[in-house]
Amino acid sequence: MKSKQQKIAEFDPNQPGVEDASIFGLPFNAEESDLIVIAVPWEVTVSYGDGASLGPNAILDASYQIDLFNQAYPELWKLGIFIDEGLASDWMLKNSALKEKAQSIIELLEAGGNIGEDAALMNDLEEINQACGRLNKDVKERVLYWKEQGKKVALLGGDHSTPLGYYQALAENYDKFGILHLDAHMDLRIAYEGFTYSHASIMYNALQLPQLEKIVQVGIRDFCEQEVSIVKNSNGRVKVFTDNDLKENYFGGLNWKEQCKEIIDALPNQVVISCDIDSLYQWYCPNTGTPVPGGLSFEQVSYLINQLAKSNKKIIGFDLVEVSPGEDSWDGNVGARLLFSLCGAFVKSQGMEVGTPLSF
């Protein structure tokens, strides 16, 4: 059996990735990989467009054609990145069944109905909330399992409800941490549409963790009155950089480097990155479920996470969510490239060797 070092010596990163390998076509198994990405294909509570449950597989498919010689992290591939799909098959089946029930609830609400008057729908709502709770528990246990093996662990959704169990696991490992939340939405709604673990409630639910010091939200451009109230009453636990304010500052002469410094300075010492793909301009993710005009460029997000990796703050994990494939591979392609950059920033911040950034 070949050792990891033998595999590194024999692997040619200039060739296309082999599709029977793990993510990015790397030749390493889970034991040999320093970074484990847990796939969670779940989108039961989606309230507009769907497809996020197919995101992990779309990113995996696209990852095989990503060049591994990344300018910022040229030797990242040598650490090994492995996608753990252990939760995928079981929860994907449950996702399909429960999503149909959730849509009936959403349709009634959109028609002005009251689900409290429909016993069957109330039972369905309870079933969905219980299943989402079990998913969180399974994710948490899976994260803790890999961390006990000494792995760096990230999460790949699915919709934005999927990382709650991930945050719960990190809360058992860290007394204090913050979240850098890149998104078009605040996701601070309380049990949106009756779903305790709605994709639109992820940051509200995260705030219930006492270990979570602060959420710094970047790129926000869609929110409701309830969410604004939560921000204003958070006693500084939620700091918001709206897309409008970022653009006004830029048009007024404050460059992106200066704004990134302000964002990073607002974060606590230990940080999880939560990246919703709809934080980007819609042309990067045309099929994402809840698109909003405006947003950040791919380069802006990459620059921000790279600057965070080089700062005195420590990245302790990340999640990437809401990638929804369309008829072509574009969304998966963008998601795979963003995933690779997030992996690089994560392990670099952890003090692991990723090579010297290239300059030309």
The average pLDDT score comes to: 95
Supply the CATH architecture: 3-Layer(aba) Sandwich
Spans of at least 5 consecutive residues whose pLDDT stays below 50 are: none
Q: What is the number of independent domains?
A: 1
| Adjacency order of strands in the biggest sheet | 2-1-3-8-7-4-5-6
Order of helices and strands: HEHEHHEHEHEHEHHEHEH
Coarse structural class:
alpha/beta
The CATH class designation is: Alpha Beta
Sheet of most strands: 8 strands, parallel
Number of helices: 11
Instruction: Kindly report the oligomeric state of this protein.
Output: single chain
The global form is globular
Helical percentage? 40-55%
User: Could you give the count of β-strands?
Assistant: 8
CATH-defined superfamily: Ureohydrolase domain
- CATH topology annotation: Arginase, Chain A
User: How much of the polypeptide forms β-strand, as a percent range?
Assistant: 5-15%
Task: Walk me through what this model shows.
The structure is a single chain. This protein has 360 residues and is an alpha/beta fold. Helix content is 40%, strand content 14%. The chain is built from eleven helices and eight strands. The protein has helices at 4-10, 55-63, 88-110, 119-148, 164-173, 202-206, 225-232, 243-251, 256-265, 298-310, 330-349, and strands spanning 35-40, 81-84, 152-157, 177-182, 212-220, 238-242, 270-276, 314-321. Helix 6 (202-206) links the parallel strand 4 (177-182) and strand 5 (212-220).
